[in-house]
Design brief:
With 335 residues, the protein is an alpha/beta fold. It is built from four helices and 38 strands. It is flat and about 90 Å long.
Length: 335
């Protein structure tokens, strides 16, 4: 593909040699002369002078740059779109593998591909163009929309509902029992039946090893466009808002509600029955114990406004010196 053709497909302005043949996409430090790279973070601007790439996707023209440039309003997004044009995943063939177990009452949409040793339970409905890889298990009564992708070892438990264009990465478990037990008088625990479901709306992606618990009653709901990273625990009856980004090792306790466009960075912990507003950013390893209003950025454990937390952290690093100064002042006052 020539650079001119790529620029037209991406809707970018071309600066430089449009006849350059582009054969792939790579990061700025690894790219070669037949590949295109990108720059979205000014922190890495110095690498433009040393990259081996033949072309680069940038937000604004770089004066004096030797390599060709595609000027984009969103370089990272257009880099992703370029990658889609060049990357070819494993070929998938429509049909049901001979070793798959598909219940007679299951309804499978057109052009679906069901891999080896997959199990599709009674009264399951799967939409068109689904790709269900080997060793996936779909329990009875599940409803799934079109263009569903489930990678090996993922599981969808009974009666859960899944929308269109949902992706489950390897080992994602949807609809596992919520952690519900009632304490008996003798101190032992009685298991509470988890009679609710999980609902994944359209364009949700659940990545590897993540568990989303079903509710005891009602539902756990992951709203449209939310993306949940590896090894996340979503408790029973949680609601995660539209377009949320939930990063690795986050734990969200039961009956918590998150608004839309929130970001929870790695290892954030959220206690139960909280309400978190729209557009909230929670930085890594924050422990959240209170409701959070929309638009806030918080950090620390227990949580603080991010700016205040940064100031506290700066003071914390100076505590030995401050302690020494306080002791000296106290000694002077006492003398």
């Amino acid at each position: 593909m020539t650079l001119t053709e790529l620029a037209e497909l991406l809707g970018c302005k071309l600066v430089g040699d449009g006849d350059l043949e582009v054969e792939g996409v790579a990061g700025i430090e690894a790219a070669t002369s037949k590949q295109i790279t990108f720059l979205s973070n000014p922190r890495y601007s110095s690498l433009v002078a040393t990259t081996g790439a033949g072309a680069i996707i940038v937000g604004k023209e770089i004066a004096g740059a030797v390599l060709a440039q595609l000027i984009s309003t969103n370089p990272y997004l257009d880099f992703a779109r370029a990658l889609e044009l060049f990357y070819q995943g494993p070929a998938v063939t429509a049909g049901i593998h001979a070793t798959a177990v598909v219940a007679e009452s299951a309804r499978i949409g057109a052009n679906a591909s069901i891999g080896a040793y997959a199990v599709i339970g009674e009264n399951v409905m799967v939409g068109a163009n689904a790709v269900i890889y080997p060793h996936v298990t779909i329990y009875p009564g599940v409803t799934i929309g079109d263009h569903f992708v489930a990678h090996a070892q993922s599981v969808v438990r009974e009666f859960c509902r899944i929308g269109d264009r949902v992706i489950l990465q390897n080992g994602a478990h949807v609809g596992t029992d919520g952690y519900g037990f009632a304490r008996r008088a003798d101190g032992s625990h009685h298991k509470i039946p988890q009679a609710g479901i999980v609902v994944l709306e359209d364009d949700v992606e659940i990545q590897a090893g993540t568990c989303i618990d079903r509710a005891a009653v009602g539902e756990t709901r992951i709203r449209r466009g939310a993306k949940i990273d590896n090894l996340v625990q979503v408790g029973h009856a949680v609601e995660i808002g539209e377009d949320n980004l939930i990063c690795s090792q986050v734990g969200i306790a039961g009956s918590t509600t998150l608004g839309k466009n929130c970001i929870l960075a790695g290892q954030v912990g959220v206690i139960n029955h909280l309400t978190i507003g729209d557009g909230v950013i929670i930085t890594a390893q924050t422990g959240v114990g209170h409701d959070i209003e929309s638009g806030r950025k918080i950090s620390g454990s227990p949580e603080l406004d991010n700016g205040r937390w940064l100031r506290c952290t700066a003071v914390y690093n100076r505590l030995p010196e401050l302690d020494r100064d306080v002791r000296r002042l106290k000694k002077k006052l006492d003398s």
